[in-house]
Amino acid sequence: MAATLADVAARAGVSTATVSRVLNGNYPVSAVTRDRVHRALGELDYVVNGPARALAAATSEVIGVIVNDVSDPFFSIQASGTQWEAASADLLAVICNTAGSPSDELKYISLLLRQRVRGVVLTGGTREEPEHLRAIAKLIGQALSAGTAVVMCGRPAPPGIDVPCVAFDNEGGARALTRHVITMGHRRIAYVAGPAGNSTTTARLKGHRSALDEHGIEPAAVVHGDFSRASGFDAAMELVGADVTAIIAGNDLMALGVIAALRQRGIRVPQDISVAGFDDLPSAVDVVPALTTVRLPLDQGARRAGRIASGVETVTGPTKLWLPAELMVRDSVAKRTE
């Protein structure tokens, strides 16, 4: 059986995109890598299929980026970072907006694979329903078989699938944030979580609860939103009148909604109720009071995912690439003295 591009890539220890670059000769590749590829080509007696290469070249200069909502700064930052790296590799990035629909996510991945894209980056949390995870795993398997790179950015891979995952420390960041609120003297702490059945929601809620458990504190209340500002506003309205001194939101947009609702009800932040968020979006430092939150390296993670999907960076070690979370202490959480 004739050697394939994937066989050459495996022998040389590089990605199929790198082999294509060496064959096409129109992308920068280091001399050492180029020599390894040429050695593998010779060892495997690889013969370039001219018509096939022309067809692939016409359809492989694209990477797809799956986002939940491109108008949400959390996703727009990631889309921008990934697109920047794609452009740096002379590739076109196609941004696919699912609006949170699991079926649309599957549809867009299928459409991208029909276009024989070079890579696909899936951002944000994933739905945790077994049926959806099986469907995603099947599509990823099809992508890898076709030589399309798949990279997870901020979400875990489906069970049994080993692809590069740029992972943010959602659980550790949430634990550190809740610990800070506790050290500020708060014991009656409500939590506004994201949508149930979402991997990001699950990780952040787990970190929050583990910090409460460490200090023997029972959750005052847990209300689920959908990561939007409006759902944070509604959650705070539901919590008004509850016996809480602090509200932690599962992301910054919901935290901004919480602050707006409390202000509307004449409740001062942080004098009456402290508020914290998560993500450290650009608006977090400009709101009054400035928002205590957790900073995730969204741009850094997205850029790395873009480089991997574009074939610029090859992952040779562990496929889970952890990026740390950083606690950002600002004015929206005040010390409780009572």
Automatic annotation (TrEMBL):
Molecular function terms, GO-annotated: DNA-binding transcription factor activity; transcription cis-regulatory region binding
Cross-referenced SUPFAM superfamilies: lambda repressor-like DNA-binding domains, Periplasmic binding protein-like I
Domain HTH cro/C1-type: start-end pairs: 4-47
Residues that span the membrane, as ranges: none
Gene3D superfamilies cross-referenced by the UniProt entry: 3.40.50.2300, lambda repressor-like DNA-binding domains
InterPro entries: Cro/C1-type_HTH, HTH_LacI, Lambda_DNA-bd_dom_sf, Peripla_BP/Lac1_sug-bd_dom, Peripla_BP_I
Listed Pfam families: LacI, Peripla_BP_1
Source domain of life: Bacteria
Keywords carried by this UniProt record: DNA-binding, Transcription, Transcription regulation
Record domain HTH lacI-type: where: 3-57
Protein name: LacI family transcriptional regulator
Organism: Kibdelosporangium phytohabitans
